[in-house]
């Protein structure tokens, strides 16, 4: 791992699973001089302090963001634009705004509309997490070996280097995409799988769940994720999610037709193609 200079004061808005893991990682590796946690609920902030994910806590985002060198928005995607609108006016000149949202086009557009040129925004999305949520599930090594996608808005090379260094310091691998590329890709690789997992569980139903095995549990683990959080993600990225569903429906119909017409060669070919792709991971 490349050497990472101290990042100064980092403000984490929403120190839950992802935000708390960022804080734990920053503190464990000595990457930040001070980690400030901003949250709505005092008990959650107290837990974050006790776990060592943050050094200071406040429920006032303006107070937390005003002294920060980096502000990381770790709330639901629905709240990220609202939090940005509160943080940006009080951030000091040259500070960097970033986020961890699972959608990007809507967030980038909203934050660009705030129009403060001396505060660069570098969109971020670590491909890490769990069906669990909250500070209790946070881990310092959550991002080790995981991919983090950055979607920089504008051409601030210095800010991009800093946010890359932050994630690399936490052990993540970096990929840079446009907001459109991000949302199109994640609709297929993240948002669609959640829909499929939830649909499969609902199809099987309560009476047949006792007859499921490890394969079913592995495939449907993410169906236990927070429904409210995922509703926000799916609706915010709805156009690209619908495109991904169309592609999946086409593939499903092809398999359905091969079964209906009793075409073992065609069915085997489709299953073998999937096996080769999956085995290459």
Describe, in short, the structure shown.
By secondary structure, the protein is α/β, with parallel strands linked by helices.
Q: From the 3D coordinates, which CATH architecture of the largest domain would you assign?
A: 3-Layer(aba) Sandwich
Quickly count the domains: 2
Rg from C-alpha positions? 21 Å
Helix content: 40-55%
What topology emerges from the helices and strands here?
Elements: E1 9-13, H1 17-28, E2 34-38, H2 42-51, E3 56-58, H3 61-66, E4 70-73, H4 80-87, E5 96-99, H5 105-112, E6 121-126, E7 147-153, H6 157-169, E8 173-176, H7 179-208, H8 214-220, H9 227-236, H10 238-260, H11 264-279
Parallel strand pairs: 1-2, 1-4, 2-3, 4-5, 5-6, 7-8
Antiparallel strand pairs: 6-7
Helix pairs in contact: 7-10
């Amino acid at each position: 791992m490349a050497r990472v200079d101290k990042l100064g004061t980092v403000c984490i808005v929403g120190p839950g699973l992802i935000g708390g893991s960022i804080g734990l990682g920053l503190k464990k590796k000595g990457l930040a001089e001070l980690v400030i946690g901003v949250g709505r609920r005092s008990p959650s902030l107290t837990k974050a302090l006790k776990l060592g994910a943050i050094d200071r806590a406040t429920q006032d985002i303006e107070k937390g963001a005003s002294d920060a060198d980096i502000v990381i928005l770790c709330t639901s995607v629905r709240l990220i634009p609202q939090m940005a609108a509160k943080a940006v006016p009080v951030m000091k000149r040259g500070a960097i705004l970033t986020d961890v949202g699972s959608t990007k086009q809507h967030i980038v557009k909203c934050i660009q509309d705030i129009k403060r040129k001396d505060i660069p925004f570098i969109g971020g999305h670590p491909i890490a997490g769990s069906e669990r949520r909250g500070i209790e599930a946070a881990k310092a090594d959550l991002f080790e070996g995981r991919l983090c996608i950055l979607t920089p808005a504008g051409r601030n090379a210095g800010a991009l280097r800093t946010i890359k260094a932050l994630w690399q310091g936490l052990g993540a691998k970096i990929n840079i995409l446009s907001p459109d590329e991000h949302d199109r890709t994640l609709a297929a690789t993240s948002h669609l799988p959640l829909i499929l997992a939830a649909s499969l569980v609902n199809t099987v139903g309560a009476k047949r769940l006792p007859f499921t095995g490890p394969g079913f549990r592995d495939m449907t683990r993410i169906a236990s994720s927070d429904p409210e959080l995922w509703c926000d993600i799916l609706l915010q990225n709805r156009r690209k999610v619908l495109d991904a569903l169309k592609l999946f429906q086409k593939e499903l119909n092809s398999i359905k037709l091969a079964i209906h017409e009793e075409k073992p060669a065609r069915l085997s070919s489709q299953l073998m193609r999937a096996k080769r792709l999956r085995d290459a991971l």
